[in-house]
Design a protein that fits this description.
This protein starts with a helix and ends in a 7-residue tail after the last helix. The chain has a single domain, classed as Di-heme elbow motif domain (Multiheme cytochrome fold), CATH 1.10.3820.10. By secondary structure, the chain is mostly helical. It contains 8 helices and no strands. The model has no long low-confidence stretch (mean pLDDT 84).
Length: 142
Amino acid sequence: MSSKLKWLGLFALAGFAMMLMTKIPALGLAEAEFCGVCHAMDEQVSTYLHSPHANYANCGDCHDPHGLVTGSVFAAYTGARDLYRVVTNTIPLEIRTTGLSKKVIQENCMRCHGDIMSTIGDTSYDRGSYCFHCHHEIVHEK
């Protein structure tokens, strides 16, 4: 095996290990304190800290998939995207969820509130509304 291929494999393995680190609770990468480091998230963090969810869930519980690999890859991707926006000063004036993020948040609503939702079903099914369309002010005012 060539030296370049070995280094590429080692680099890929190190990158994958770093992505998995996003799911280590002790690092706090899914906590409001970490997410709030960026001034663009001040309003989101403030409204979250004054919401009922602050006692039971962190930012990653709602905004990241819960699988180890899928959650790590998603958190690494969104984190890199957000870091790029901060470094290049291209932060949008209004923070909005993407289509993929909406699906992740909906799945997490269903996961945590499944007991209530079992009688209602997934409200987003067949082009319906996401839970947070009606309940967005519970965590974030906007």
